[in-house]
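Thread title: Can someone regenerate the structure for this chain?

I was given the following input by a collaborator and told the matching C-alpha cells would be attached. They weren't. Posting the sequence so someone can regenerate them.
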Amino acid sequence: MIELKNVTKLYGKVIGVNDFTLTLEPGAYGLLGPNGSGKSTLLNLITGQLSPTLGSVRVDGHSPRNNSQLFKRLGYCPGGEGMYADVTGFDWVKYLQQLQGMTSRQAGSTAKTALGMVGMHSSMYRPISTYSRGMRQRTKLAQAIAHDPEFLILDEPFNGLDPIGRHELTIVLKNWIGRGKSLLFASHVLHEIESITQSFLLICGGRLLAAGTADDVHAMMVGIPSEIVMRCSNPHQLGARMVRERSVDSVRVTGDTLIIATQRPIPLYEQLASWLVEEQLDVFEMRSADESLQALFNSLMKMHRGEL
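Best answer:
Regenerated them for you:
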C-alpha cells in the first residue's frame, strides 16, 4: 500500500524526515510520535502535498504527487483547518466532493451521509464560524470519508473532541476498519491509537524508531529502567527507604519530588503502600514518567544511538 525508500525531506537546513524507509501492506496503523517528530511531514509526503528531497514515495505503486486518480482512492483529514467560516459544513463537504468529480446531487447526498456518520446531523446547515473546535474536526473527517476512499489518512483527528466525541469517532473508525478499509492514524497520545489498532509505527526526530504491536514495543523496553515520579511529604526519607530495600536503581530529589529509576517496578509498587504506612508519609501525586511518550522515545533514541 505504501512504500518509502530512503526518504529525506529538508526545509532549508531543518530535517523533517531523515532517511525514512518503510513498507506497509493494506491494514490499520497508528503513527505515534511526540509533537515535532515529523508525523505531519511524513503524511504530507504520502499524500503528495510535499515532494521528498531525497528518495522515493509510492502509494499503490504510484507517485502521489499531483496524481488525481490516486486522490480519488485516498481520504485525508489534515491537522490544520483551512475551512471557510461563512459557509455551512454541508456546503463545504459537498463542494469538496464535487471537486472529486461528483454531480451536485451525488455530492449533496454523500455529504449528508458522511456528516451524519460523524454526528453532525443537527449542525450541518449552520455556518462553520459557529462551530466548536470539535465540530470542525468532525466536519473535516466527514469530507475525508464522504467519497468512500480505500485508504484513510488522519492527522491528529481527536484534537478538540470531548470524551463523548472521542468515543463516537472511535466507533466510526473501528467500523471503517471492519469494512476492510485501510487507515493510517497519526497521534502523540498512545491510548488514542490503542483504541483503534494495535499496529504501531514509532517516529521521533524524523526517523522511524520501531514498528510492530504494543507488545513488541514493550518487549524492546525490557531491561530499560522505568522512571517513577512522586510528590510526597518527605522525599528524602522515602528515597532512603527504597535504597535500603534495594528496590531502585537510582533516586534523585527535587523539592518535594522524588524521581525513581527501577528495572523492577512491580515489586516496588507491591511494597510501597506498607513503606508509606511504616514511615508515616503522605503522597500527593504519583505517576510513571514512562507513560509520557517523550520518555519512551528518549529511551528508543538512546537504543538507536547505542547508548543503552
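The chain has two domains: 2-219, 221-304.
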